[in-house]
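INFO batch 0412 | record 1 of 1 | parsing
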Amino acid sequence: YIGVHGGGAWGKSGVGSAEDGEAACDEVDGIICSASFSTRGYSGGAQIGYNFYVADGIVAGVEADATFSDIGGDIFFNGKNVASTLDYSGTIRGRVGVLVTPSTLVY
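INFO prediction complete | emitting tokens
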């Protein structure tokens, strides 16, 4: 089988200063120790897979997908622009299921 998928995402990302540890961060004026910012965007991609009957109601399969996205956000942090982005992702997985009835497969 083949298919397409699409959607959106939102969340929070964080950034922190690791220079000289937390104590130094508290002692210096004008230095921000940490900050968070929103990320959002869209994604879309395709998947492909194959299922096959093994024996005695056992079904196995493999599926792979690839997703491309425009999810991200940025913040100006201690004089620098810091960005978080997700441009693409992909997975491949196997599975095994049991055919409980002729029309019901449980993985």
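INFO post-check: The chain has one helix and five strands.
INFO record closed
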